[in-house]
Amino acid sequence: MDAYFPNGYVHYLAGGLVIGAGVGLLFLATGLIGGISTFFTAAWSFVSPQPYFQQARFVDSRGWRVAYAAGLVAGAALWLASMGGAPAVTQVTWWQLAVGGFIAGFGARLSSGCTSGHGICGLASLQLPSLLAVLIFLATAIVTAHAVRAFGGA
Amino acid sequence: MKLRTAAWALAAGLLFGYGLALSTMIRPEVVLSFLRFQDFGLLLVLGGAAGVTFVAYRFGPRLLSKPFAGDSFGVHPSVLDTRTLGGAAIFGVGWGICGVCPGPALAGLGAGNWPLVVSVLAMLAGAYVQGRWFGD
């Protein structure tokens, strides 16, 4: 067990269950499917006149998506406050955060989903395209993460 | 937008963000150690989250005629095409470089992992380029 979970496993499982409670609550309360990546497109509808961003699917959903995103930030802040102690600040290099973030943002929106949209919502609704998307992004992420380390990245 | 919908989305987001922080997925180092087979904890995060959500998706509409604060239960079918699968491949490359995906990028800010603001801004830029020049 320790070989697979050197940092323990309870917090992973508990965290996953709480995440599921959040996505499940959103559905039971409002009927909405709560992936996160659409927020990053819908946010542009506030400032960009481009027709793509002014589609109803973004303009009509941006209100709850902003509230959902604000909840994510606030929920993690609550966790920090309840735990006490200093926040963990990443040592991953800024170029990795920037280049990786840009590619991840582009890819997630091209794919219409990320780890939450395909990984949680898509798998939970037993959708084959989402299962394939998850297997594909896990595969390319695993290969990339190994390559980045081989080339000296964090 | 209905204020009631936004309030429930905020509440759901609070749980989501708390869970992401509790799972330590807001730390890119943990994600990268998973992708490098050093710690398989993220499988438990994904399994736990998808499992609970599966129960809600499956049994919610059977037990309730409609959402308790909404009009109808939505569906969001994934499409089996090159955009979905190719986009996923590209997303994985980015995720493997930085160890940050959209949810943890936002939640990380709340937990004081301030360098993740770089990833949030970069994801916004990536989403813009996708929508502006590669939109469907």
How many β-strand stretches of chain A? 0
What's the total count of β strands of chain B?
A: 0
Over all CA atoms, what is the radius of gyration of chain B? 17 Å
Q: What is the averaged pLDDT score of chain B?
A: 97
Strand content of chain B: under 5%
Major interchain interface with per-chain residue totals: A-B, 123 and 118 residues
Query: How far is the first residue's CA from the last residue's CA of chain B?
Result: 25 Å
Summarize the biggest pleated sheet of chain B.
Answer: none
Instruction: Spell out the helices and strands of chain A N to C.
Output: HHHHHHH
Count of alpha/pi helices of chain A: 7
Main pleated sheet of chain A: none
First-last Cα distance of chain A:
26 Å
Q: What is the approximate shape of chain B?
A: globular
- SSE-based structural type of chain B: mainly alpha
Oligomer: heterodimer
Pattern of helices and strands of chain B = HHHHHH
Helices, strands, pairings?
The complex is a heterodimer of chains A (154) and B (136).
Chain A: H1 10-30, H2 38-42, H3 56-59, H4 62-83, H5 94-110, H6 115-124, H7 128-150
Helix pairs in contact in A: 6-7
Chain B: H1 3-22, H2 28-35, H3 41-63, H4 82-98, H5 102-110, H6 116-134
